[in-house]
Each structure stands twice: as structure tokens, then as C-alpha cells.
Amino acid sequence: MADRPMPQHAHTTLTVLLAAAVLAAPRALDAQGLSRADSALVGRVLLAEDRRDSTDVAFTEAAVHPDARLRAIALRGLGRIRDPKFAARTALPEIPQAPLWVEPAWRLRFRALTGLRDDCPALRLALMDSAWAVRLRAADLARASCAGDDALVQTITRWIERLPSETSSRRRGDVSWHAGAHGLVALARLRPDAARRYLPDLLRHRQPELRRSATQAAAILGDTTALRAMLEDLDDNVAEMAIEALASRTGHADDARYLAALRRDGAQVVRAAALALRGTSLAAAAPTARQAFDRFVARDDASARDARIALLAVQGRPASEDRPPVERASLPRDAIRLALGDTVVLRVTMASASGGGRFDVRLRGDVAPMMAARLLALAEARFYDGLTWHRVEPDFVIQGGSPGANEYVGWRETLRDELGTVSHRRGTVGMSTRGHDTGDAQWFVNLRDNARLDADYTVWAEVITGIDVVDGILEGDRIRSIRRVR
Q: Which pLDDT score is estimated for 3?
């Protein structure tokens, strides 16, 4: 892939794409002091970097260009091609950092709970905190050592018993299904017999996230009958959890069930089933996995790589035999302007059923122009409308934008890393990956400073307004829309 020459037809396509991109906004380009040829050169450099082709003559031309911006873009592109971690990026001109956001006061209380797993009075007090993030964290930490604390157990039990009749919506600052879900899992650790009384009803609940938590509780309780039943759940995320929990308890005793799961559509559940089948003695495993692999290859979906690799393993074949989609060399419409410093802001509006509110993010095209431009195009195509924030870790990140509400289901085309000089500070927006150059178009927003992510994850945007809305997002909250602010 790296340093691969382009075929002649690709050069023709590239010329057309560059011409279209430049002609689309001549005023913006003129305002940046560049000729059309110069702007086209920027596009050629960006595409060469995206292809990981360090031999492209565009780098040589831009490296001696009189405009410092083009020289910097070329130097950065070569650096990112030659070194995946791009150690030399600190030598580039200083790039403005993201805004500084003060953390909410409750996050200090949230962090203080980590070392208090066996401090039952402290956990009991935290269960009544003014912030639900703190309350849910206390429930997640409670374990058998606090089983004798009747007041603590009663509070958690009330969460389960007071589940609202309508769990698909919540008021801002409040919860819906979340308290009952966290409460049931905690009760399974604290008083298993009590948890078993509530388990059947919650395993049949219409809210899939609640069924998933009930499946987690069934795993803690060692209820293999319930786990087998939940493996048939129509929600792929519920079935995924059931497979993972069952495989860890029964080994290969349920391989026939995992084999049937290979015929499902969700990449996450097929991956889990394939992993559970590794080492199986079932003769039908290899041919069934081969059929599933061919089906996933036909989907032309780069984000399903983990499922394909797991299916290959069932067949005894190496990951090198994967057949990913053919990579397409294309220049996003706004990539050139973003690379040259144009400001673009996206407004994320949350669904009213998820508490409402909105926050704005500014794209960092000065760092990651190709990624920012592609995500801008997805937003304008309304790809994210109606999707959820499926991962919420209140002292780390929120992550969303998956059509399957799962880390293994993303956009069908892979996004390349564009590591830069902007650190993962609180409020920056990064790109989800599962390895180098495997961006899946899922966003994550840093809720705290996460400098340890700098070497591996691209910062492509930053929150500029509405950080309080970001801090208040809960698992399963839905995005109403993402629109460009004109």
C-alpha cells in the first residue's frame, strides 16, 4: 500500500476531482492568497498522504513552494507516511491548542470513589449524590463486601423497582433505564438471590440496553439458561454479550448455538460467535465460517474487519487472507480549504428524548484536513442523524456515531490517521480506531485531559460551546442532528 504508484486511470480521476474541488469555491481559495494551481497542489499532497505514497512528485513540488503553508503540509505528510507515530511532528510550526474547559465539580467526587470499593458508608452516601454519574459509579463499584449494608442495598433495589414505564426518554439531568440497569448488575454482586427475582422481567424488557445489563447480571449469577435464551435476542449487542458470557462459562458446550449466530447480520455478534468457536471440534464450523466470511466481504464494509478476521481464524486461515474493500482515492470537497485554515463549525443537537441541548465543534483542518473533510461530508449527508452515544465513561470519553451502537460497526470506508500536535485535552474530539489507519467515523469526545492517547488517535475537532451538554450525555442518548453552522 505505501509507496504504491497510481495507475493512469486514477491520475485522470484525481485531476477531475481536484478541478472540481478548486472550482467549487474560488473566492475562498483566492482569499487565501493561492492560485488555482497552488490549491490543486495542496490537494495532490493530501491525496498522496492519504494513499501513503511518499514517491508522489507533489511532495517535491510543495517542499520548495514559496508559501510556508504548502511546505509545512508537505513536510507533515511525508512525516506521517514514514513514521506511523510521526515522531517528528513536534518540529512543525506550533498549532493553537483547543479551548480550556473547567471540569464539573462532581467529577472530583466521581474520581474519589475509585479507592472506596469496600467503604460501604461512602458508597451509600454516593448513591444519593446530586449527579447521576456519581450515583451510577457508586453502584458499579459496590460488591459483596457491602452485602450486609441494608441501606445501600435498599437504595439500589428501589432503582430497579422504580423503573419508569417509559424508558426511551429522559429529562436533562435525570435518567431513564440507567438506574435500574446499573442497580440490577450491582444487586447480582451484592445479593444474588434478590437479583434473581427481578432478572426474568428485565431480560424481557423492551429497552435493549436494559436487556443487555440484565444479560450481564445473568452472567454474574451464573445463569446459563438465561444466557442461552439471550443469545437469541434480536438486538445484536444483547446477543454479543450473551455469547461472550456463555463462552467463558461453558467453553465449547454451546458451539452449535455460536455456529447458528454466524448467520446473523451484526458484525459484533458474528465476531463474538467466531471467537467463541476457536478450537471447536464441529465439522460444520469451517464451512459455515467461510460462508459468513464471503458474505461480509460482499458487503464492502471496511469497519467489519474484526468480524472477518475472527471468521478466518475459525477456518484456520491467517489474518493476511482478509479481503478488505478496495481503497478509493478521493479528495473530499472541503479538504483543501480546511488544510489552508478555513474555519468550519458543526452543531450537534441532541434529541429531546435524550435531554436535548446542543454543542458546537470546530473542525481542526489545520491538523487533520482529510479526516475533518470526510466527517463533514458524512454530517452533511445526515449519516449521524438518529445515532447514539453508545459508550459513556464519565471520567474518560463519550463515543458514538455507530449505526450498530457498537465499536465494531462503523462507516464502510476506512479513515487514515492524521496525527498532529494537538493533544487530547478535555473537549477535543478524536477518531475511534482499532489499530493504525482504521478510523471508522465514530467520534469520541475527551471528557478530561487524555495525553496518553496522543500517539495513537487523531484529534480532528474540538468543542467550542456546550461542554455542559457533553458532560451530561448518558449511554444510549440519541443525536437528533449534526449540521454545519453557516
A: 36
Contact of 357 with 478, CB cutoff 8 Å? no
> pLDDT tens digits for 30-39?
446 789 999 9
pLDDT at 10 (0 to 100): 40
Is residue 7 pLDDT above 80, yes or no? no
Residues in the chain: 486
Between CA 199 and CA 28 the distance in angstroms is 60
Rounded to two decimals, the pTM is 0.90
Whole-number pLDDT of residue 328: 79
Mean pLDDT over the full length of the chain = 92
- Distance (Å, whole) CA 297 – CA 419: 29
Q: What φ, ψ does residue 49 adopt, rounded to 5°?
A: -65, -40
